[in-house]
Amino acid sequence: MDQADELRDMMGKKNARTQRVIAISSGKGGVGKTNIAINLAIALSNLKQNVIIMDADLGLANVNIILGSMPEYTLLHVVKGIKRLNEIVMDTPFGIKYIAGSSGFSELANLDSNELSKLVSGVNDLSNTDFIIIDTGAGISDEVLYFILAADEAIIVTTPEPTAMLDAYGLIKVVAGEQIYTNLKLIVNRVKKTSETKKVGERITTISKQYLNMNIDYIGFIVEDETIPYSVARQVPFYAYDNKCRASICLDSIAKKLINPNYTENKKSGGFTAFFEKLVNLSSGT
Ligand SMILES: Nc1ncnc2c1ncn2[C@@H]1O[C@H](COP(=O)(O)OP(=O)(O)OP(=O)(O)O)[C@@H](O)[C@H]1O
Ligand SMILES: [Mg+2]
């Protein structure tokens, strides 16, 4: 039994609903992570899932820019013991909730066990949440790696550009080198010809299997769609702006796959408690 199970038992939450943490990452920057994280969250909430989007991009906190809202409190207030986790969860007009994480995550490494259990007990307030979707920064920094390793699942985003594909493979390779079980998925974004997406998806999955012995689930593609820059400029998530645009339809099919029990690997999820614990352990090097 790991520490997370122990804490869950203690809190009487053993049979609470399955909670999934999905990190959205990429090798190369600017490939569409933030847009995918927010709009996938909305597509999942359309399928009756309770979803929180968390912003972990330590550079630019760009989730709040697209959501058009400025948070008063962030994860940092929780880590410092000023607020409980449920007190910093913000409603958005789009059916999803939002936690501004950006500045708080780097402080997690400094928590002592007392502070960690306080944070973890706060996680139980989120027990009716089905998904936490985390928008991570790009590239192969320690932070990004820790999010991928601590989450149950990570979606790697690439575009069909060779540089983006190479960087995606580079990230997968680093994750593979850690020898910690992680369920990796792949989305190919900004697809102009649907014929090219299969090639891109297959190339990354085949090479990852062949050279790294990593199984990557290719869960779909999103077409190049001018609705995205148009809605970004207006600070509205594209799915909320037009849930029938081509990109939204692509996201619907990805969201359906994610919640399909026949598709999703049947591994017990550690839930949010395990995620925060793993993140603290990884970032403090224990
Ligand atoms: N499918 C698409 N069709 C058209 N434009 C797109 C698509 N996906 C993303 N874009 C454009 O790419 C820009 C960058 O997307 P986004 O900010 O989501 O990338 P990111 O990976 O989060 O970037 P960063 O690494 O800087 O955080 C968007 O503002 C949008 O204009
Ligand atoms: Mg981003």
Describe it.
This protein has 286 residues and is of the alpha/beta class. It has one domain: P-loop containing nucleotide triphosphate hydrolases (Rossmann fold). Helices cover 46% and strands 17% of the residues. The chain contains 13 helices and 8 strands. The protein has helices at 3-10, 33-46, 63-67, 75-79, 102-108, 113-123, 142-150, 162-177, 194-212, 227-233, 238-241, 246-259, 271-283; strands at 20-26, 51-55, 90-91, 97-100, 131-138, 153-158, 183-191, 216-223. It has an 8-stranded mixed β-sheet with strand order 3-4-2-5-1-6-7-8, sandwiched between helices. Strand 6 (153-158), helix 8 (162-177) and strand 7 (183-191) form a beta-alpha-beta unit. Helix 6 (113-123) packs antiparallel against helix 13 (271-283) and helix 7 (142-150) runs antiparallel to helix 13. It is globular and about 55 Å long. The mean pLDDT is 86. It binds adenosine-5'-triphosphate and magnesium ion (MG). Residues 33-34, 57, 62, 135 line the site of magnesium ion.
